[in-house]
Amino acid sequence: MIVVTDIHKHFDGFHAVDGATLEIPTGSITGLIGPNGAGKTTLFNVIAGNLAPTSGTVTMNGEDITGLKPHALFEKGLLRTFQIAHEFHSMTVRENLMMVPPRQTGETLWNTWFARGRIAREEEALARTADEVLDFLTISHLADERAGNLSGGQKKLLELGRTMMTDAKTVFLDEVGAGVNRTLLNTIGDAIQRLNRERGYTFCMIEHDMEFIGRLCDPVIVMAEGKVLAEGTIDDIKNDEQVIEAYLGTGLKNKATA
């Protein structure tokens, strides 16, 4: 379980996150929503080690991970993706996946000279794992395609596939649906649910697509002005007066009561 306690993140006089407290239950797919400027991505960056908090604590399964760098959190199984995918565009999709696991034998110059057999066996195993991941994500046909040639949605699937090349425990997804067509978004949603159900992944996602959030997420957490405004099921959130006022808009309220 990730527990965020009274996190503040200030940029000069601006309080991007202003005392946020929340929990991400182990085994959940937790949604994080809110208007632009609510502090969602900044909070993600604090939890995932991209930013150090001004104050407050983050724990994972009881261990204080506040301020740990992304590579240290990676070793603990906490990963994040970004709204804009970060692929190695000149490498193939398979090669992008094979790059992920740390401490590979071929990473040192000495081993490239004196451990060539071990490197070859390791790369063969990584290629098999990568192909299994691509099959799971239903994009095996893209294995030898240059990653830079993928569509936005395919790149999001590739980023999800990268998490499967590690011993991931908790994955933070930043607007996985941004710029993705509905067909691919459904494929991404199916993959997230299967990873959660079959492999025990815990997810927390920032997303603006309420239909997508409603399909996948429970609980849903709403942020506004750097604070947690509400938490509950998607139905709870849609009927919360404070949330309607701050984020969802009076149009939804009037529709619900019509």
TrEMBL record:
User: Which Gene3D superfamilies does the record match to this protein?
Assistant: P-loop containing nucleotide triphosphate hydrolases
Provide this UniProt record's keywords sorted from A to Z: ATP-binding, Nucleotide-binding, Transport
Which Pfam families does the protein's record reference? ABC_tran, BCA_ABC_TP_C
Q: Which domain of life is it from?
A: Bacteria
User: Keyword Acyltransferase: yes or no?
Assistant: no
Where is the ABC transporter domain positioned along the sequence?
A: 2-250
**Which terms does the record give in the GO molecular function aspect?**
ATP binding; ATP hydrolysis activity
InterPro entries listed in its UniProt record: AAA+_ATPase, ABC_AA/LPS_Transport, ABC_transporter-like_ATP-bd, ABC_transporter-like_CS, BCA_ABC_TP_C, P-loop_NTPase
For this record, the Gene Ontology CC terms, alphabetical, are: plasma membrane
Under PANTHER family, the record lists: CONSERVED COMPONENT OF ABC TRANSPORTER FOR NATURAL AMINO ACIDS, CONSERVED COMPONENT OF ABC TRANSPORTER FOR NATURAL AMINO ACIDS-RELATED
- Report the protein name in the record: Amino acid/amide ABC transporter ATP-binding protein 1, HAAT family
From the broadest rank down, the organism's phylogenetic lineage runs: Bacteria, Pseudomonadati, Pseudomonadota, Alphaproteobacteria, Rhodobacterales
